[in-house]
Amino acid sequence: MTNLTIRRLLIDLETPVARHWCGGDAFLTAWFNALSMSFPVGEQFFIDAVREGAKALPADQQARWEAEIKGFVGQEATHRRIHALFNAQIEKHGLVNAWAPRAESRMVLFEGADPRHPLGVTAAYEHFTALFAEWLLSHPQVLDGSEPRLQTLWLWHSAEEAEHKSTAFDLYQALGGDHAWRAKWMRRVTVFFLSDALRQTVSNLRRDGTLWRWSTWRSAARHLLGRQGLLRTNWPAWRAYFRPDFHPNQQHSERSATWLREHNEQFVPVSAAGR
Ligand SMILES: [Fe+2]
Ligand SMILES: [Fe+2]
To answer: What keywords tag this UniProt record (predicted)?
Structure first.
């Protein structure tokens, strides 16, 4: 069982956000904006999947899971709220969120499904989020030149994603979810996640008028495919998910605890019971 703290972030998201808030880099801004656009809808799906999964546990196991489920739901609910505030700011830049409605139209397919299916999907997305989180925590220079409040937003979210990266996976296993379906969902989620993220990034860049700038493509190549790039450095960790004995805890995330310890003036812990 993982002990998860719910934290209220003490940052201002009422003040407008600069158009190229990520250090003046159009690509990085568009990429982070795209991810943020998916969070309110996506994280609600994860919350629902975990809640429904917990209800399907045998009665004698439910008490053991209660605290972790509350922690997971509380963390994701906080992320949703904060990113909705952030999204309201970036939409003032003329960006249009096409990812969320597309994802919502797919989610309908899970109504009435065995709870292990949405959980398998959630576990796969949570692996992606954990990889992204670890990459960002280990390359915080990506956010250099961004306002401190926005650095905090992204690094806090990353730290909590690393903290709860096992919850959906463990619940899937506890419900007897098998390896074949887990791998199948990861293959599908990979296609959806990468195509959705790239489509939304391109849309953001097009609306921003920076899609065809050389600097945009140079930044994309460097940050996605370069030696320290997101896709290139995470390829082995992504593949590991297909091993039958894979567990999220096999991949280290000590940077999460360090960041939370060193920045504890930027949030206040709240009790799960109080929410
Ligand atoms: Fe989250
Ligand atoms: Fe998460």
So the answer is: Hydrolase
List the chain residues with pLDDT less than 70.
Answer: 271-275
The per-residue DSSP string of the chain comes to -----EEEE----SSPPPTTTTTT-HHHHHHHHHHHHHHHHHHHHHHHHHHHHHHTS-HHHHHHHHHHHHHHHHHHHHHHHHHHHHHHHHHTTT----HHHHHHHHHGGGTTS-THHHHHHHHHHHHHHHHHHHHHHH-GGGGTTS-HHHHHHHHHHHHHHHHTTTHHHHHHHHTT--HHHHHHHHHHHHHHHHHHHHHHHHHHHHHHT-TT-HHHHHHHIIIIISTT-HHHHHHHHHHHTTSTT--GGGS--HHHHHHHHHTGGGEEEE-GGG-
With respect to residue 238, please indicate whether it lies within any of the assigned structural domains. Answer: yes
The residue segments making up the domain with residue 37 are 10-274
The whole-number pLDDT of residue 259 equals 96
Residue 14 token pair: 């009422």
- What CATH code is carried by the domain that includes residue 229? 1.10.620
Q: Examine residue 2 and state whether it is found in any structural domain, yes or no.
A: no
Ion ligand 2 residue ranges (Cβ < 5 Å): 161
Amino acid 70: pLDDT: 97
Q: Has residue 194 been placed in a domain?
A: yes
CB within 5 A of ion ligand 1: which residues? 76, 79
Least Cα distance to 90 among 190, 207, 219 occurs for: 207
Residue 4: inside a domain, yes or no?
no
Total of domains in the chain: 1
**What is the distance in A from the centroid of ligand 2 to the CA of 10?**
20
Ligand 1 centroid to residue 160 C-alpha, Å: 7
Tell me, in angstroms, the distance from the centre of ligand 2 to residue 210's CA.
31
pLDDT score recorded for residue 47: 98
